[in-house]
Amino acid sequence: MPGNGSRTPRTRRFSSPAASRTRSPRLFAYGAAAGLAADLLVGDPRRGHPVAAFGRAAGAVEHRMHRDHRGRGALYTALCAGSAVALGAVATRAVRGSATATAALTAASVWAVVGGTTLGREARAIGGALEAGDLGVARERMPHLVGRDPQALDGPAMARAVVESVAENTSDAVVGALFWGAVAGVPGLLGFRAVNTLDAMVGHKSPRHRRFGWASARLDDVAGWPGARLTAVLATVAGDDPRGALRAWRADAARHPSPNAGPVEAAFAGALGVRLGGTLSYGGRVEHRPVLNAAGRPVEVADIDRAVRLSRRVTWLTLAGCAGGRLLAGALRRRGGAA
After folding, report:
1. Amino acid 300: pLDDT
2. pTM of the model as a whole
3. 3-class DSSP state for residue 153?
C-alpha cells in the first residue's frame, strides 16, 4: 500500500514476448538503417571481416569433409549454413531483453553482411583506371570484383564485366540479405550471407566441386530467388528507363544460365540502356552467354558510375521496402491479436 515504504516492482519495457513482437519491426528498421549507414561510412575492413572469418572456417571444414559426393556436400552445406543461423538465433535470444542491444545487434549484423560500399569503391576504382587508359591497373583490381580471367579482357569487356558484377552483387550482397533480415531477423541475415559465401567457395563447376558443391549452389539459388526479383523490380523503378528495364527483364532474363543473375542483369541493362552478356572466360573456360537488352548500346566506362548510383538507389529503396513491410506485418499481427 502507498506510504508503507514498499515499492511496486517495475516491469522491464522489453522483457515479455508480446513486447518483443511489438517492438521488433521498429528495432529492425532502426538497426538496418544504422547498419547501412555504417557500411556507407566505413565499408568493409581490410582485415578481420566477419564474412572472411566464416570463409576461413568453412574452408577448414571443407578440407576435412570433402568427398566427391553430393550427400557429403549437402551435409557440409547444412553444417556451415546451419551454424550461422544458430549463431544468429543465440545472439538474438541473448539480447532480447534490451531494445538498444537488439537494435545494435541488427545494425552490426547488417554492416557485417552487406557490401554495397566496397562494391561501389572497387567498381569505381576499375572505372578510374579504365578512364585513364591504364589497363594494367584495371586488370590487377578486377579479381577483387569478378571471377573472370582479366587477361582475356580488353577495356570495353572489363567495363561490361564491372557493370554486370555491380548488378549481380547488388542482389547478392545487399538486397537478398536485407530481404531475409526482414523475414527472419539476424538469423536470416547471417544465414543468407553464409549460403551466398558457400556458393562462391564451392558452388562453381570445377572438377573438385562439381558434386560436392551442388547443394550449396542449389541452396543459393533458392535463397537468392526473392532478392533477385526484388532487385529487378527496384532497378526498373529507380532506373533511367523503366520501360526498357521491364522489356529487357521480360525478354532476356530466362536466357541467362543463372536463374537469379538473369533478372537482375537484364533489368540493369534495360535501365541503363546498355547491352550485357556475351562471351566471357572463367579460369580458362570460355562461355558464350546470350546478349541481354540487344537493343542497347555497348557499355562505356561512364556506365560503371551510373551502375553504382543505380545500385545505391536500389539499396535504399530495399531498406524502405523491407522495413515498411515488417512494420506493416507487425501492425497486422497486432490487429489480428486484438480481434
Report:
1. 97
2. 0.89
3. coil
Phi, psi of 335 (to 5 degrees): -65, -40
CA-wise closest residue to 238 among 294, 316, 145:
316
Per-residue cell: 291: 546478349
Cβ within 8 Å of residue 62, ≥6 positions away: 76, 201, 202, 212
- Enter the C-alpha cell of residue 209: 566441386
- Do residues 191 and 88 lie in contact, with contact meaning Cβ atoms separated by under 8 Å? yes
* C-alpha to C-alpha distances, 123 to 142, 215, 249, 303, nearest whole angstrom: 9, 30, 23, 11
Q: What phi and psi values does residue 297 have, to the nearest 5 degrees?
A: -90, 165
Decide if 248 contacts 270 (C-beta within 8 A). yes
Query: In this predicted structure, what is the pLDDT of residue 9?
Result: 47
The pLDDT of residue 62 is 96
What's the burial of 111, exposed, middle or buried (CB within 10 Å: 0-12/13-18/19+)? buried
43 burial type by CB count under 10 A (0-12 exposed, 13-18 middle, 19+ buried): middle
Q: Looking at residue 13, what is its pLDDT?
A: 47
Question: In the chain, which stretches have pLDDT less than 50?
Answer: 1-3, 5-14, 18
pLDDT score, position 22:
54
Per-residue model confidence as pLDDT tens digits over 226-239: 999 999 999 999 99
Instruction: Look up residue 243 and give its amino acid.
Output: R
Cell representation of residue 128: 578510374
All residues at 6 or more sequence positions from 156 whose CB lies less than 8 Å from its CB, including other chains? 298, 299, 300
Decide if 173 contacts 145 (C-beta within 8 A).
Answer: no
> Under a CB-based contact definition with an 8 Å cutoff, are residues 177 and 113 in contact?
yes
Q: Is 213 helix (H, G, I), strand (E, B) or coil?
A: coil
How many helices (H) and strands (E) would you count in the chain?
A: 12, 2
* Residue 173 to residue 150: CA distance in whole angstroms: 22
